[in-house]
Design a protein that fits this description.
The protein is an alpha+beta fold. The protein has 14 helices and 10 strands.
């Protein structure tokens, strides 16, 4: 006897809408939905859930785990499915048919699955038009599969997809196998990215740990999760992962010959993050470019110049070339401001004015205090130099130097200190041969 699909059983049951058995199932479905709604509300109001779902206030890089549309749309169908499963097991034990409960369970589980997949995409990728189109595509595919299952057409479709196959050596590759591989790989990778984003937010929220170390741990965690996702996806569709040994060998040769620079930059990036020779926020000078380290990625580092431009520097440069890190162990930076005064000026007054001009700036440290020194006796005048220390080199030094020079110039004019012009003495000799 041919077994009936769930849709056929439900159609036969709905032919008699006043059947008490149908009314009992409808009441169970409505009660399960109502009870799931109340349970979801209580769960979302619990302190434990709020501690899990809310963004830590101490770190702006940590993100919320709240999906668009709220967790209610995910938790309610899951709880409803669990309650309906309990009710179904009780009715099956009494040898009662449960087509309406089976239909409601299938719809609840499908709705929860769609919402979870959409939420995983939202967490794994930034919002864009492609993401919204992918969400609609996933929902359409899942609901279409459910409809085919309800009408008993899914086994027939499976047979048709298996019939479309080609032979590659001893391996039979069908269209069904390809679709299963793509689906399994996409699902595991999205889940891995979702989980890595969630764990990354928690890691970056640990303000007690160095920022570079947190970034390194987050990137290592993402790489490991993606690798595990591929290893999990292949066995799900019946592919032996030992078959990847040949591919791994070929990939190793390719990395060794064709991807030397890329591999070197990736390895250098992890070395920088782990040994913390360069950290986010450091003021560095590399390739004659000075700026603040804004981001350290796996392949390159972004250095934001004091003029606002950003330079993308391969990580290998920080390992093989000389890098001047002005804030590696001490963020204090020495500034040297040269000034020249004439030989007729009072040098002590000039040096006092220079030191006072340095102390008048809020960014200049008082310890060590600004000090003026005589550097040399030049042709046109006496070379002086003002030494200043600042603790915020990432703010730049040009505006500060300008303000100090203006203060020195005003006080020099007020106190009669002269800044000399270059002097050249020309002597005209009489021609010895008239």
């Amino acid at each position: 006897m041919k077994s009936l699909s769930l849709a056929d059983e439900l159609t036969q049951l709905l032919q008699n809408p006043r059947d008490p058995h149908l009314l009992v199932q409808a009441a169970i479905v409505c009660g399960a939905l109502a009870l799931a709604y109340l349970m979801a509300k209580l769960l979302l109001r619990s302190p434990a859930w709020r501690a899990l779902a809310e963004r830590p206030a101490e770190d702006k890089l940590a993100e919320r785990v709240q999906p668009r549309g709220g967790w209610v749309g995910i938790i309610i169908p899951i709880l409803a499915f669990m309650l309906l499963a309990v009710a179904r097991s009780v009715m099956v034990a009494r040898e009662l048919a449960t087509p309406l409960i089976d239909l409601a369970s299938t719809l609840a589980l499908t709705y929860a699955l769609v919402r979870l997949l959409v939420h995983a995409l939202q967490r794994a990728f930034p919002p864009n038009a492609l993401l919204r189109a992918s969400e609609r595509l996933i929902a359409t595919i899942v609901w279409l599969a459910v409809v085919l299952h309800l009408f008993g057409l899914l086994p027939r479709l499976r047979q048709q997809l298996e019939a479309l196959s080609i032979s590659i050596g001893s391996q039979q590759i069908s269209l069904l196998l390809v679709l299963q591989l793509l689906a399994a790989a996409a699902l595991t990778i999205v889940v891995a990215l979702w989980l890595s984003r969630f764990l990354e937010a928690r890691i970056m929220a640990q303000s007690s740990v160095d920022l570079s170390l947190r970034a390194a741990l987050a990137k290592i965690l993402r790489t490991v999760l993606l690798f595990l996702a591929v290893l999990i996806a292949l066995p799900l569709v019946g592919i032996d992962i030992t078959a990847l040994s040949v591919f791994g060998g070929a990939l190793g040769v390719g990395v060794g010959f064709g991807l030397q620079k890329v591999a070197s930059n990736y390895v250098s990036g992890f070395i920088i993050l782990l040994e913390r020779s360069i950290r986010i926020g450091d003021v560095v000078t590399v390739d004659d470019r000075q700026g603040v380290v804004a981001r350290i990625n796996a392949r390159y580092t972004v250095v934001r110049g004091l003029d606002g431009t950003e330079a993308i520097i391969p990580n290998e440069t920080f390992i093989t070339d000389t890098v001047v890190n002005q804030s590696a162990s001490d963020r204090r930076l020495l500034l040297k401001l040269p000034v020249q005064v004439s030989y007729q000026s009072n040098v002590d007054t000039a040096m006092r004015i220079m030191e006072d001009a340095g102390r008048s700036q809020a960014r200049v440290l008082s310890d060590p205090a600004p000090i003026a020194v005589i550097k040399a006796f030049a042709d046109s005048g006496i070379d002086l130099e003002l030494l200043l220390w600042i603790a915020d080199p990432e703010q730049g030094s040009a505006p500060l130097k300008s303000e100090v020079f203006k203060a020195i110039w005003r006080e020099f004019k007020a106190n009669g200190v002269e800044i000399p012009y270059p002097q050249r003495e020309i002597r005209v000799l009489k021609d010895p041969f008239p």
